[in-house]
Design goal:
single chain, alpha/beta, eight-stranded parallel barrel, 10 helices, 8 strands, disordered C terminus, binds 2-phosphoglycolic acid
């Protein structure tokens, strides 16, 4: 099995100001003590990209952009291209987050175009998928995930630069998570779909869980065999919670990359 990344990704969403830099520094500093196979990625708002890039350079954390345009340059007011993010030394792009899909009607096709831009700029694309509560209650979770995966993820790219984040929409910011059996089932299903499409290279694609991750549930979720890391929203704003989640990952995966 290839060497997949263990990722702990913090998505700050539309939070933070210049005054949050000390908080970001507090979050980034402990990453120096993590085993090298665990990567911590900070996704700050665009206004803090430059300062977070400086922090990331001084620590073992990596920088990511929360979104990118599906175009490479030109008359696209308000958008940031993947190359612009990469110019700030962002090595990760977060694409297809459910907030973009629901608030701005982003389709799988658009998410795929954005992912292609991120990959073309040399970044790692973290592509989010997840079912709604209605889809879950109708027993359609697996079908929805397979469909989103098939249409959002660019084919013919390097598998080691693709990361999938499974984020059930109903779990984001609600304090409610699926059961560990449901998470394991969804991740195993995604792994099967990836293997069908990518063959042995699927082993290089990490699958993260996201949605109401906290220091209370991180250990249990990270301990599941098919979970390769976490995408964290609310808890990533808090240095103590962030550090607790990272040390859970270090405890569980200690020696895994040695
Ligand atoms: P949450 O957000 O951890 O606050 O639920 C997760 C996400 O939106 O990525």
């Amino acid at each position: 099995m290839g060497s997949r990344r263990t990722l702990i990704a913090g998505n700050w969403k539309m939070n933070g100001s210049r005054h949050s830099l000390s908080v970001l520094a507090e979050i980034a500093r402990p990453t120096n003590d993590l085993p090298p196979h665990i990567e911590v990625v900070l996704f700050p708002p665009a206004t803090l990209l430059a300062q977070t890039a400086t922090l990331a350079k001084k620590t073992a954390s990596k920088l990511g952009g929360q979104d990118c345009s599906s175009n490479s340059a030109g008359a696209f007011t308000g958008e940031l291209s993947a190359a612009m993010l990469n110019d700030f030394r962002a090595t990760y792009g977060l694409l297809g987050h459910s907030e973009g899909r629901t608030r701005h009607g982003e389709s799988d096709d658009l998410v795929r175009q954005k992912s292609i831009q991120a990959l073309d700029a040399g970044m790692i694309a973290v592509i989010c998928i997840g079912e709604t509560r209605d889809e879950k209650e109708a027993g359609r979770t697996f079908d929805v995930l397979a469909d989103q995966l098939a249409h959002s993820v660019p084919k013919f790219s390097s598998a080691d630069r693709i990361v999938i984040a499974y984020e059930p929409m109903w779990a984001i910011g609600t304090g409610t998570t699926p059961s560990v059996e449901e998470i394991e089932g969804a991740h195993a299903h995604l792994r099967d779909c990836l293997t069908f499409e990518w063959g042995a290279n699927a082993g290089l694609i990490s699958i993260l869980y996201g949605g109401s991750v906290s220091p209370h549930n991180a250990m249990e979720i990270l301990g599941l065999p098919s979970v390769d890391g976490l995408l964290i929203g609310g808890a990533s704003l808090n240095p103590a919670k962030s550090a607790a989640i990272c040390s859970n990952a270090a405890a569980l995966h200690m020696g895994a990359g040695a």
